[in-house]
Design a protein that fits this description.
The protein is α+β, with helices and mostly antiparallel strands and about 725 residues long. The chain has 17 helices and 30 strands.
Length: about 725
């Protein structure tokens, strides 16, 4: 058996294929990787016991990406050639991870590595998987309340920020294969070089040429846009492929207000909101790469791509189930027939999660996971696993941009390395942690600063009524008390380092998440602190005294209540925040007992789907439309975490799905948020109500933000370098 050198969650190596499941080392946000296996240099999967005596590297079955190799070392901490074969009985070796440079001693016939904590010193009294009472030891050692909250707050937008600026990053494509699109809320950034609308410097005449230097935290899970739902795959697609429509990102426009504009389409027309005719632009060429060789894109390519999106194995097919039929009329015309009039059709065909148009020869004449060919602004010139992507301008692109000649995207897993490279001027943009923002702003005052709202939604939820009908959390007083136990302002202040950042002249509005997160902006988000929220807003206020009274009035038995979360998927910040919330529940007198869960074997396969008892702490990636949240949390689907069936919300969800007037639809979503707040079926938690700050080099112009995974086109495509 080989376990992940950082997370200790491996699977046995046995015929017919050696399999390994690990997620955080890849840092691509992949939910399930049954295809991971050990591979020899030639790419052949391990298929027999005899192969185990050779040097192997852990990689995807597609051969597209790789996991850092486990290596043996006779000197602790010093990597050596990859470990081969088994450890003899009674012998021991040290294992190092080539990424994290740490070691643990291992013994016995099984090849097992212990958990390695990158750049963290593990406390000797680190908590066990299940504990009761207050917890004061967190991932990385014993932390003060301030540093612990700061670590928790650092998860605020990292899952979404990279994709919004054209970089790859982490996200949470859920177990059912559905994914989501990060939203970006209104902002008025301040500081040197920041434009009024939120992007970078826009002055001066556009200059062509140059190479944009950016980074990603890991390899894309696959280069095939329909092969995986991870952020890395979607972000890569935005460089190479086109969509029917895209987001008209602009430095002076709030990304939530940015219009949907034509990409491959010339127009989309409907008389009733249910039956649509889409007309394509003529003369759009694919990139000049064999066997497609620059031929013209037609409606048949769109239909082929649509069929790949709707295929049962597609990770995102469930997101377009309302579109019943797509047909080709002629080379430049298609029809789309929906189940009913829909307010989100244009969002669907512009969504960076969904329809990327690829040549109909894909899969038969060439493998898109090896040779990506699209009609987008960039063509992939080179890809070196675990090293870099190189993109060149598509010379025959149908727009007059991109303005730069090339993009170099370096694969740098560690934030510290990315930060130092930006400090040295070797990267043009980087997502900067809240602790480093004031330092960098002071040391390099010419750096431009762009705020990206945190996109993910953290929340607490409760096991279903169907399995635990008499549980105390069936009482709304219990659920309301858990919400009032949370100090949301405390999380925001300490987590986002707000005071220190304000002292250097950068400010961003602090907002509390609702069941529809603040990142979606006032268009759909109802502020829990506003008068418009009404009396149910009181259940968001930090009021431990009132919460304690509610719990005491229920006369709860002393039976422990399990509080569960995963601590080996979303990073130490998420685990620390889960512990923070757990301690606040202890403080109001709840007899909770903390339990950490393995992401693969328990959390995503059981707890995430409502198969648990007690209270759970989780996270949802963001959706581009608020209906994604109501469908996820309140309808009859496998990922309704608490299996909540609220007839009021069910009725409102059905109404919004056919309401074409946006103002009326917004009021429906406001009512949904009020109803969830009254019952607190799901308890919204920070930290994503703040901003992740993007540092941008002074010579970068027209740096915009978008609300989709289309940054390679919508952001990088329009950047130009003033030097």
């Amino acid at each position: 058996m080989i376990d992940c050198s950082r997370h200790g969650i491996g699977r046995p190596l046995s015929p017919p294929a050696a399999r390994l499941e690990c997620h955080a080392c890849l840092r691509t946000g992949v939910t399930d990787l049954p295809g991971l296996n050990t591979r020899r240099a030639g790419g052949k999967p391990v298929t027999s016991e005899g192969d185990r005596g050779e040097s192997h590297r852990l990689a995807h079955a597609s051969g597209v990406t790789s996991v850092p190799a486990l290596v043996a070392s006779t000197v602790p901490g010093r990597p050596s050639p990859p470990l081969t074969g088994r450890v003899p009985e009674g012998r021991s070796v040290s294992l190092s991870c080539t990424t994290f440079v740490d070691t643990r001693r291992v013994t016995g016939q099984s090849l097992r590595s212990r958990e390695l904590e990158a750049n963290l010193e593990v406390s000797a009294d680190r908590r066990e998987p299940s504990m009761s009472g207050r917890i004061t030891t967190y991932r990385g050692g014993r932390l003060s309340r301030r540093s612990m909250l700061r670590a928790a707050g650092m998860t605020g937008g990292g899952l979404a920020a990279a994709a919004l600026i054209g970089c790859q990053g982490d996200d949470d494509p859920e177990e059912d294969g559905s994914t989501s699109t990060p939203g970006a809320a209104s902002a008025s950034p301040t500081g040197t070089g920041a434009a009024a609308g939120g992007g970078g410097e826009t002055s001066g005449d556009i200059k062509r040429g140059g190479t944009y230097l950016t980074s990603t935290s890991g390899d894309a899970a696959t280069l095939d846009p329909y092969g995986n739902a991870s952020t890395g795959t979607k972000s890569f697609a935005a460089y190479v492929y086109s969509r029917l429509y895209r987001i008209g990102a602009d430095p002076d426009v709030d990304p939530q207000e940015a219009p949907i504009v034509p990409d491959l389409a010339e127009s989309a027309e409907t008389d009733d909101g249910q039956h649509w005719t889409v007309t394509l632009k003529q003369g759009v060429p694919f990139q000049d790469i064999a066997p497609v060789s620059g031929r013209e894109l037609t409606a048949d390519d769109v239909l082929y791509s649509w069929e790949r999106l709707r295929a049962p194995e597609s990770p995102n097919s469930s997101q377009v189930e309302n579109i019943l039929n797509v047909a080709v009329v002629d080379d430049y015309t298609l029809t789309f027939d929906l189940a009913a009039p829909s307010p989100i059709f244009m969002s669907q065909i512009s969504d960076g999660n969904l329809l990327w148009v690829m040549p109909r020869e894909s899969g038969s004449d060439f493998d898109p996971a090896v040779t990506p060919i699209g009609s987008g602004p960039w063509r992939m010139a080179e890809y070196e696993i675990s090293s870099n992507f190189q993109f060149e301008r598509h010379e025959n692109y149908f727009e007059d941009w991109p303005y730069m000649d090339a993009v170099s995207e370096f694969i740098i897993p560690e934030y510290a390395n990315r930060y130092s490279q930006f400090q040295a001027g070797n990267l043009h943009a980087i997502s900067v942690t809240s602790d480093d923002v004031p330092v960098l702003k002071t040391e390099q005052p010419d750096v431009q600063w762009v705020p990206i709202p945190g996109g993910s939604l953290d929340f607490m939820y409760f096991s279903p009524e169907e399995s635990h009908p008499d549980a105390p959390w069936r009482d709304e007083r219990f659920r309301r008390a858990t919400s009032m136990a949370l100090d949301r302002d405390g999380i925001m202040e300490f987590g986002y380092n707000l005071e220190a950042i304000a002292e250097v002249g950068l400010e961003y509005p602090v907002r509390w998440n609702n069941i529809i997160p603040a990142a979606l902006g006032p268009r759909w988000w109802l502020d829990p602190q506003s008068e418009a929220h009404g009396p149910t807003g009181a259940y968001f206020q930090y009021n431990p005294e009132e919460a304690m009274k509610l719990i005491q009035a229920m006369d709860l038995p002393d039976t422990p209540i399990t509080y569960q979360y995963t601590d080996n998927r979303y990073g130490p910040g998420f685990g620390n925040l889960a512990v923070v919330c757990y301690n606040w529940l202890v403080d109001i007198g709840l007899p909770v007992e903390a339990q950490t869960q393995d992401y693969n074997s328990q959390y995503i396969t059981q707890t995430f789907r409502g198969d648990f008892e007690g209270i759970a702490f989780g996270v949802s990636s963001p959706f581009s439309d608020p209906s994604g949240y109501t469908a996820r949390f309140f309808t009859d689907n496998p990922t309704n975490h608490g299996r909540v069936s609220d007839p009021v919300i069910t009725d409102l969800h059905e109404k919004q799905s056919i309401e074409l007037d946006e103002e009326a639809r917004r009021e429906i979503f406001f009512d949904i948020q009020r109803q969830n707040a009254d019952q607190m079926w799901y308890v919204p938690v920070q930290p994503s109500g703040g901003a992740v700050w993007i540092g941008v080099r002074p010579n970068v112009r027209d740096f915009a933000r978008t609300r989709s995974y289309g940054g390679g086109t919508e952001v990088v495509g329009k950047i130009w370098l003033d030097s």
